[in-house]
Design brief:
Layout lengths: L3 E6 L4 H12 L3 E6 L2 H14 L4 E5 L7 H11 L3 E7 L14 H29 L2 E6 L15 H19 L4 E6 L8 H4 L3 H5 L9 H13 L4 E2 L3 H12 L19
Parallel strand pairs: 1-2, 1-4, 2-3, 4-5, 5-6, 6-7
Helix pairs in contact: 1-8, 3-4, 4-5
């Protein structure tokens, strides 16, 4: 059996779950982590019944400072060699910026930002030693979009993650390590209901909604090929191109991130 493992955060549902299934179908052993242990155990049983791979489960809350070290120590103690990291865990805060406590904001930034840096920093020394490794960062089309009054820090932290992915490639491509930033648009998962923005998601035109399995498939394919950026679906590739060349004021008419745009 292959001794290399893929570590997937936020694997209990949505894009993370589908990426886990896709990687298992390609023969990857898995370390899956999220907060919901029962869901992780069910996922593990289901994957193991379909594919000849090893699946390890660790429940961790990435909003806690200790979570990154817990995950690393779990892998280290069990001799699990992480060759691919999928930084997928995330959520949104539906309340307005001035209504959200600093504690909530810090936890949010830890899950979507600091934990990505922490896990990468923890596992990359072994990747450098082995001259092999892949890092997937699930970002968002929102990282290219103008500011939105809904989920005020979501777009900014995703933009930061895009640049972090670029930096990893600049630093470690020569060591056989590649980083792929995946920027999906609206994807039909539990994300929006869990984040309190299902009402906004329901208003999105059907042609802008993506199938989660197809998003996962494109994300995995791009990562294994060592691509630096993956924007699933042709429609969002076009949209991102337009976001780069058309003044953002034009997009006041159509908000692709779930809230109206305002001037700074």
């Amino acid at each position: 059996m292959n001794k290399k493992y893929a570590l997937i955060t936020g694997a209990s549902s949505g894009i993370g779950e589908e990426i886990a299934r896709n990687l298992a179908s390609k023969g990857f052993n898995l370390v899956v982590t999220a907060r919901r242990l029962e869901r992780l155990n069910n996922l593990s049983k289901d994957i193991c019944s379909q594919y000849d791979v090893d699946v390890r489960v660790i429940s961790a809350d990435l909003s806690e400072e200790s979570a990154v070290n817990e995950i690393y120590e779990f892998c280290n103690k069990n001799g699990l060699h992480i060759d691919l990291i999928v930084n997928n865990a995330g959520y949104g805060i539906p309340t307005q910026f001035h209504e959200t406590s600093m504690i909530e904001e810090e936890k949010f930034l830890r899950v979507l930002g600091t934990s990505v840096i922490g896990l990468t920093k923890a596992f990359i020394p072994e990747m450098i030693k082995n001259k092999s490794g892949k890092i997937m960062i699930i970002s968002s089309v929102a990282s290219f979009a103008p500011p939105s009054v809904i989920q005020s820090l979501y777009g900014p932290v995703k933009t930061f993650m895009n640049r972090f992915g670029d930096t990893l490639n600049a630093l470690y491509k020569r060591d056989g390590i590649s980083s792929t930033v995946v920027c999906p648009g609206y994807t039909v998962t539990e994300f929006h209901s869990a984040s309190g923005v299902q009402e906004q998601m329901d208003k999105v035109p059907e042609f802008l909604k993506l199938n989660v399995k197809k998003v996962a498939e494109e994300a995995v394919q791009a990562t294994l090929k060592g691509k630096t950026l993956c924007i699933p679906s042709k429609r969002y590739k076009v949209l991102v191109f337009l976001l780069k060349v058309i003044p953002w004021k034009v997009f006041q008419l159509i908000d692709i991130t779930g809230g109206r745009y305002e001037k700074n």
